[in-house]
Design a protein that fits this description.
Shape: globular
Helix content: 40-55%
Distance between the termini: 56 Å
Oligomer: single chain
Largest sheet: 5 strands, mixed
Strand content: 5-15%
Structural class: alpha/beta
Low-confidence stretches: 206-210
Strand order of the largest sheet: 2-1-3-4-5
Order of helices and strands: HHEHEHEHHHHHEE
Mean pLDDT: 92
Length: 210
Amino acid sequence: MKLTDELIENNKRWAMSIKESRPDFFEKLSKQQAPKFLWIGCSDSRVPANEIVGLLPGELFVHRNVANIVVHTDFNCLSVLQYAVEQLNVEHVIVCGHYGCGGVKAVFSDDKHGLIDNWLQNIKDVYDRYQEKLNALSSEEQKVDLLCELNVVEQVSNVCRTTIVQDAWDRGQKLIVHGWIYGIRDGLIKDLNISVGGRQHLPPSYPPGV
């Protein structure tokens, strides 16, 4: 049996287990998706979005990229965000990073990684902004973990500054942007307490319309 064949067999067992517990699940799912949440997370295979929050297919709309970055020139991410907000009417956008992120770790190295170095420049900008705070820590592990948190905070701000989210708030749509971080060592999510639900809640350094 090929390694990929095993995945197909796993799928069959999974689908059967769902049908046994909820016989009409796939029929209902095929007719619509109505998630309340958009998850913007890292591509890391150790962070399966639906699984770690205990949600079934159809309950979480997902966008993932290396180091959970939201850039205003990334039309892939912006298209997902717009569809989630304007078509699916999600009520929560969750930016979730994770401790020990390889993309964040790379910022502390002088090694060349190829094309991805251009993408990781976005995290280097965050590092430069908080360099004094990061350098005050004694170990590299502490520095990486703090930068993982700071990166989430930065990306929450970036989500809030998009025209998509700003327009949603202007028309009175309920939409809250959250910042979380996941611990691969213990499987637990930490809320970074930076939920933003409107222009009035934006940090002073990111005034409306910037």
